[in-house]
Design brief:
The chain is of the alpha/beta class. It folds into 2 domains: 3-164, Rossmann fold (3-Layer(aba) Sandwich), CATH 3.40.50.720; 169-291, N-(1-d-carboxylethyl)-l-norvaline Dehydrogenase, domain 2 (Orthogonal Bundle). It has helices at 13-22, 34-42, 68-76, 99-111, 124-130, 141-151, 166-194, 199-207, 214-218, 241-258, 263-280, 288-291; strands spanning 3-7, 26-30, 46-47, 60-63, 90-93, 115-118, 121-122, 133-138, 155-162. The strands form 2 sheets. The protein has a 6-stranded parallel β-sheet, sandwiched between helices. The radius of gyration is 20 Å and the shape is globular. It starts with a strand and ends in a 7-residue tail after the last helix. The mean pLDDT is 96. The protein binds nicotinamide-adenine-dinucleotide. Residues 3-160 form the 6-phosphogluconate dehydrogenase NADP-binding domain. Belongs to the HIBADH-related family. It comes from Pseudidiomarina sediminum. Residues 165-291 form the 3-hydroxyisobutyrate dehydrogenase-like NAD-binding domain.
């Protein structure tokens, strides 16, 4: 059993912390939301009144926060954890942030002899609840090995992509591809529907044909085709459009820095940003299906 501090109890962090408790770990959590803290208490977590309390005697501190500035604030801010952590603690940041911020965090904590890995995840809220996430880690090999113990309580795959920051690079490559698959699947389904096809039948056909992909397998964007996905629940929960737009922005920044050519990623960034600007930022990212609704013929 390990003593774990956990920060950020949103759609992902809440169920992840609960799974750590189920695995027998002693988990102390912190979030800015009282509702999230109350839910974590019900799941068996101890709650910290102040951020710094999660670091107290912790073997691991794990964070699952929205974006770069939240992570920087929590660790390196004026009242951040940097000065409270001890060298006995391994810090694991599971948020999706830029590789640069992850490296800055890693090197700043290293100056205080605190070990750090970035470990962004894939698998969505369903994977967080079921404890089947994939962790994509960047950091020293022995630190990733040590983290495997606790990460296994929340996921089924733990990969090491390379040194600190490499997890984030692999993660944005994956999410850029996911956005392309989601937008493409939505377009194909809407085209079929516009021609009178039943989306359930069309989904089954594409699932058994060369268009098969993850969105058709487990995350169909068309309401009513699949149970227990955001599309069949008013696009509530899941992975927000705002967060997908953030990840696509990170991918484009990375592409600019390296000179990589990512025209499809640029297209989906613009799609997701416009969809967010139209007021859909807090819906699940599969709601892009509604953006590609056929126009009524005049
Ligand atoms: P979310 O918005 O549901 O949750 C974020 C939580 O962090 C909230 O509870 C918020 O109150 C808390 N928070 C914000 N600032 C804080 C601070 N300073 N101190 C303490 N708590 C703070 O987000 P999410 O969907 O859980 O996503 C978290 C991260 O995981 C993001 O980086 C996202 O890109 C990534 N991710 C999400 C999914 C998904 O399907 N939702 C999948 C993979 C990766």
């Amino acid at each position: 059993m390990a003593k774990i501090g956990f920060i950020g109890l949103g759609n992902m962090g809440g169920p992840m912390a609960a799974n750590l408790v189920t695995a027998g770990h002693q988990v102390t959590v912190f979030d800015l939301s009282e509702t999230a803290l109350a839910q974590a208490r019900e799941a068996g977590c101890g709650t910290a009144e102040h951020l710094v309390d999660v670091a107290d005697g912790a073997d691991y501190v794990i964070s699952m926060l929205p974006a770069d500035h939240h992570v920087e604030g929590v660790y390196l801010g004026d009242k951040g954890l940097q000065s409270q952590l001890s060298s006995a603690t391994l810090v694991i940041d599971c948020s999706t942030i830029s590789a640069e911020t992850a490296r800055k965090l890693g090197s700043t904590l290293a100056e205080h002899n605190i070990r750090f890995i970035d470990a962004p995840v894939s698998g969505g809220v369903g994977g967080a609840k079921a404890g089947t996430l994939t962790f994509i880690c960047g950091g020293a090999a022995d630190a990733v090995e040590q983290a495997r113990d606790v990460l296994s309580a929340m996921g089924k795959n733990v990969f090491r992509a390379g040194d600190v920051g490499a997890g984030q690079v692999a993660k944005i490559c994956n999410n850029m591809l996911l956005s392309v698959l989601m937008a493409g699947t939505s377009e194909a389904l809407q085209l079929g529907i516009a021609h009178g096809l039943d989306p359930k039948v069309l989904s089954e056909i594409m699932l058994q044909s060369s268009g098969r992909n993850w969105t058709l397998e487990v995350y169909n964007p068309c309401p009513g085709v699949m149970e227990n996905v955001p599309a069949s629940n008013g696009y509530d929960g899941g992975f927000m459009v705002d967060l997908m737009a953030k990840d696509l922005g990170l991918a484009q920044q990375a592409a600019l820095r390296s000179g990589a050519s990512t025209p499809m990623g640029s297209l989906t960034l613009n799609l997701y940003r416009s969809w967010a600007q139209l007021g859909h930022g807090r819906e699940d990212f599969s709601s892009i299906f509604k953006y590609v609704t056929p126009q009524q013929k005049k």
